[in-house]
Input
Amino acid sequence: MSEEVKAPGAGKRPYDGTRRRLKAEATRRAVLEAARELFVQQGYTATTIADIATRAGVASDTVYAAVGRKPVLLRELVETSLSGSDHAVPAEQRDYVQQIRAAPEAYEKLTTYARAVTQIQQRLAPVFLALRDAATTDHDCAALWVEISERRARNMRDLAADLRTTGQLRADLSDDEVADIIWSMNAAEYYVLLVHQRGWEPTRFTQWLTDAWSRTLLTPPS
Output
């Protein structure tokens, strides 16, 4: 009589962590959305981890496990608002950046970027203003504010250099000046002034950015 000896674990279905991963992602989104609502509504300083946990319907320990402390929560909100996804995406990997670099004409590059700025600020502006206010009293938030501002300035210098390759930028403007002009007008504060306070439609804001940048930065057509 022969006996068949099975290896340990033979016949068992392999472990599938998909359900657990999806649950963790859903929890993370709920925590971030709760933090976003509270930071915008009542301010960063006044919001506690317990408040966020209650709004998200989880325990406080789950907030820490899913995302982290308050400064990490705010950073994640800024990064995901910039990226337009559940996780941070480096600027060079974002679709609109690749479209800008592929466009042959400066006007097309500026139009694409103006459209992207409007879409980003619809997500980012309320969060970024909460960060600005928190930066006045919180060291971590102040450091994040400076980091994001300087990163945005570096990205605009890259954009200016890319625009220069078209041969259509004004010769009397340096790349640094071009970058500073775009940097000042893609800020959350600028969007809030015109869209939130003056009641402009986002489409009008996009058209204004495109027109203003084109008239200011590009060589007039002959």
About this structure: The chain has a mean pLDDT of 91. The radius of gyration is 23 Å. DSSP finds ten helices and no strands in the chain. Residues 171 and 219 are 8 Å apart (CA to CA).
